[in-house]
User: Fold this.
Amino acid sequence: MYLWKKVVGLCGLLILTACGFHLKGTGNVQYELPYSSWHVENGQVMQNALESALIYQSSHVSLTENAEAVLKVIQIDHRQDIQSYNNNGGVSEYLLWVRVHAQVFYQGEPVGKPIQVYAQRVLTHNHSDLLGHQQEKQSVWQDIYQDAAKQMVQKLKTKRTAFPHASPEKSI
Assistant:
């Protein structure tokens, strides 16, 4: 009976691999951004991070006012919550997080569904070094914004079916 289960499992695996099944992200399709020129609107604290992520993800992207597509940031929620306390009752760690809602526009019309990304980091709090803590906190916030921007661009690259006017994908 045990051998029979192994044989059936092996046959199932062979059938899946024979029909071209592969895990997500292991295919040979190279995802590109759906449009070649972008404009980031209302980016606020994430403006630089979003522009950098768009340029970094594709060498063919240009950022102009008269762009083919506009990435409009609808809302940015960021918070700092207490993660844990130390033995003296003081704050030991903070949880910093950001949630970003954005929408892609093509020729003034919204395209696809709004995109939402979430990023978080834990910041260790040291009571003896308050000045260094503020600098470290700023650095962690910038890291969170960069992470959220990378996630946003990755979603733009992988959800190509939502963009009807997009250029075709390139195969390797």
About this structure: Residues 35-159 form a domain with the Double Stranded RNA Binding Domain fold (CATH 3.30.160.150). The beta strands are 29-30, 37-41, 62-63, 69-85, 91-106, 109-124, 170-171. The two ends are 44 Å apart (CA to CA).
